[in-house]
Amino acid sequence: MATQLKSDALMEQMKLHMSTDAGKELTKKIGLVYQINIAPKKIGFNEKSLVVDLKKGGVKEGAYEDGKPDATFSFTDDDFLKVASGKMNPQIAFMRGAMKIKGSISAAQKFTPDIFPKPSKM
């Protein structure tokens, strides 16, 4: 059974976000496919993969199967939420080793908190 991650709720919101006008604007603007690997505690262990497709507009669980994603990111659950919510700058996350990137750096640079829906107030 997959571990419940804190970021699961954000990904659910992201799925809804993709069907809104704002989500459709994103696909026009970015046009890239990201795979995000989220680990409960330590990058590389028990990761859950999600694909955020900003080409077709969609979010799904599992690895990307249509060739290679434009960029793949690995985070721990907590750090992913910090980056997605804008509490941690992606460049700083990368320099601290809180985020690992594979793939195109120019594609990776378009991965910003702006692509995520603003979390509803807890």
UniProtKB/TrEMBL annotation:
What is one Pfam family matched by this protein?
Answer: SCP2
State the Gene3D superfamilies in the record.
SCP2 sterol-binding domain
What residue range is the signal peptide?
Answer: none
Highest taxon, organism lineage:
Eukaryota
* Domain SCP2 intervals: 17-112
| Annotated protein name in UniProt | Sterol carrier protein 2
Species annotation: Salvia divinorum
